[in-house]
Design the sequence.
């Protein structure tokens, strides 16, 4: 597994300053697992406050605009995320692709903008249930990797430095309670790794591939122990320390 496991909580459109207590509790416990990289991506409104509240964890954004500034009402740029204290950003989440019509090309542009601003970048990919049932899952995800991952010299340098990760999130498993079977996860992560090696050469081994999609305390150990799984992107289970910390512990126990 490249580097130490990476456990990232995505709070999505949830959270107020009252939830900083949960973040502090997660942060205190994360310090007990130095072999695990732990991070949270709260709503933009909480990034600065969360950055001040924690010391052991990474803090990131859930999206960024392709441009550094301009007339884009309601959007947030990568330099703005840096200014608030973020050190990474998630791009291409299926909810962004579906709800905002983001194409692979847009996701790639966002990833490149994030890297240009100095942010670590997690690029999300994943197939729908219809695509999986049609036997197209690996082809769809491989095409998303090819079209969404950053390119160019700056991207190659970032990849070699371990600043790029891919999150495989089967769309049908996000927030549904359904989880992909381990053999399917292993096969998909292998397919993604093959595309990364094709894109970046041996530096593609530096890219951690996370699994996301209804990850919780009951299934985390099995998923994190699966071949090729370099961590987890966690949604609902990251909103409380009680639910999130067992996932961190599973990653740090030697099982993940």
Sequence:
């Amino acid at each position: 597994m490249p580097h130490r496991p990476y456990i990232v909580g995505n709070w999505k459109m949830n959270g107020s300053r009252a939830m900083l207590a949960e973040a502090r509790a997660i942060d205190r416990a994360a310090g007990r697992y130095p072999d695990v990289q732990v991070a949270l991506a709260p709503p933009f409104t909480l990034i600065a406050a969360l950055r001040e509240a924690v010391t052991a964890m990474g803090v990131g954004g859930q999206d960024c605009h392709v441009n550094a500034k301009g007339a884009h009402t309601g959007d947030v740029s990568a330099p703005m995320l840096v200014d608030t204290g973020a050190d990474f950003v998630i791009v291409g989440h299926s909810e962004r692709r579906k709800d905002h019509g983001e194409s692979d090309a847009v996701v790639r542009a966002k990833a490149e903008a994030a890297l240009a601003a100095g942010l670590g970048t997690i690029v999300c990919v994943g197939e729908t249930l219809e695509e999986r049932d049609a036997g197209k899952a690996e082809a769809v995800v491989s095409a998303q990797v090819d079209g969404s991952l950053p390119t160019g010299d700056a991207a190659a340098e970032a990849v070699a430095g371990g600043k790029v990760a891919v999150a495989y999130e089967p769309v049908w498993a996000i927030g549904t309670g359904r989880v992909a079977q381990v053999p399917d996860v292993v096969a998909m992560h292998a397919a993604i790794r093959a595309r990364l090696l094709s894109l970046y050469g041996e530096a593609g081994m530096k890219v951690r591939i996370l699994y996301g999609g209804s990850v919780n305390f009951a299934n985390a150990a099995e998923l994190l122990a699966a071949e090729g799984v370099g961590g987890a992107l966690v949604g609902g289970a990251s909103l409380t320390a009680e639910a999130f910390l067992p996932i961190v512990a599973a990653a740090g126990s030697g099982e993940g």
